[in-house]
Each structure stands twice: as C-alpha cells, then as structure tokens.
Specification:
By secondary structure, the protein is of the alpha+beta class. The protein folds into two domains: about 100 residues; about 90 residues, Immunoglobulins (Immunoglobulin-like, Sandwich), CATH 2.60.40. Helix content is about 40%, strand content about 30%. The protein has four helices and eight strands, in the order H-E-E-E-E-E-E-E-E-H-H-H. The strands form two sheets. It has a five-stranded mixed sheet, with no helix packed on it. A three-stranded antiparallel sheet has the order 2-6-5, with no helix packed on it. Strand 7 and strand 8 form a beta hairpin. Helix 2 runs antiparallel to helix 3. The N and C termini lie close together (about 10 Å).
C-alpha cells in the first residue's frame, strides 16, 4: 500500500510545468548579450547602456556594468552564467540627459534549451513512466527481478533529475525530488533483493 502511495506522489511531481517567457542560455558557456538603446522609438547618438543582473536568489551577479557600443544604438556584454535558474536584469539606457529603465529575465539551463513541459524531455518521461509501470507490474505479480529492474530505473531517473532537473531547471527543489527518486529506488532495490533471496512475501 505504501509503495502505491509513493508511485502516486511521483506521478503528481511529474506533471507538466510552465516557465516564464525569457531569453534562454546554457550554464557555464561564454554568452554575448545584446541590447538596443531606443528612446521613444529613436536611437540616441551619444547613448550609453549599463546593466545590472541578479542571481536567482536575488544577490547581485553584475552590478551596473557598462556595455560595449556596436553602433546604431546596439550594445553587447560578454559573460558566463555559473548557476542555473531565472536571472532578473535591469537595463539602463542613457541618452545624455535622461535614464531609461527596462527589465528582463534570463533563463539559464544546463543545455541552453528551453522546455515548457516535461513532455519536451523524453528521457525523463521514459525513465519515469517505465519505472512506474515495471514496479507496479512487479508488485502485482510478486516478481522480485522486475522490481529490481524498476528500482534501477528510478535510481537512473534520480541521477538524471539531479543533473538536468525539470524543464532544464535545477534548484534545491529539483535536487530534493531527485534524492527522493534515488531513495525510493534504493528502497525498492533492497526490498526486491530480500524477496528474491529469502522468498519473502508482502502480507
């Protein structure tokens, strides 16, 4: 009964999640951020452009740093994001007399690919569904070997979630879920091994 409750919880955890509409980049990769300084639809001739970017936890990543002018109101800034998550940016365009503020977001993922649903991640989906099906089959038939196979899939699911998270977002929540997958996989593995060796039955 407890095993079935765990499986239901896993299914709820794997429901699709939707992320904010942002620019998406890969973690630990050299990135060129590009900006346009425009005031009321016009490009100032002597404009400057500074940016401030906050880590997902709110602390400062880039503090009011000047960008490089490229001409025609275009600017760039080269950087490298060291953590995954959603970064908030504030962009300050100076036209010589006034300062104009714009706010944006950067979504940093392990691969640089934005996913809007767990359905976009076939590996996570296959490992999860296959593990659940095999474990349910093992419980229904009393087959410890299939239970062992299912436990391995859950452990692989946990390791994959630890690295890539959900929808390419890794944080304390996804790591906690990953450890839960691994822990349940280990529990099922030992239970299956015990039943396999000693021929125990779940009363």
């Amino acid at each position: 009964m407890k095993t079935k409750i765990f499986l239901i919880l896993f299914c709820l955890l794997m429901l699709p999640m939707v992320l904010a509409d942002t620019e998406t980049y890969a973690v630990n990769k050299d990135i060129e951020l590009k900006f346009t300084c425009s005031v009321d639809g016009q490009i100032p001739t002597d404009a400057t452009f500074n940016i401030t970017i906050n880590y997902p936890n709110g602390s400062i990543f880039i503090n009011n740093s000047a960008t490089t002018p490229l001409g025609n109101g275009m600017f760039n800034y080269n950087t490298q994001f060291k953590e995954t998550g959603l970064y908030k940016s504030q962009m300050f365009c100076y036209d010589g007399t006034d300062k104009f503020l714009n706010t944006g977001y950067y979504e940093i993922t392990p691969t640089g690919i934005k996913q809007t649903s767990i359905l976009d991640n076939p590996i996570l989906l296959i490992l999860g569904l296959l593990g659940i099906v095999i474990v349910i089959f093992a419980i229904a038939t009393g087959n410890p070997f299939m239970g062992f196979i299912g436990s391995v899939l859950f452990i692989l699911l946990g390791v994959y979630t630890m690295i890539y998270g959900f929808n390419n977002v890794t944080d304390m929540y996804t790591r906690g879920v990953a450890m839960t997958f691994i822990g349940i996989g280990i529990f099922i593995m030992f239970a299956s091994a015990y039943d396999w060796v000693f021929g125990g039955e779940d009363d």
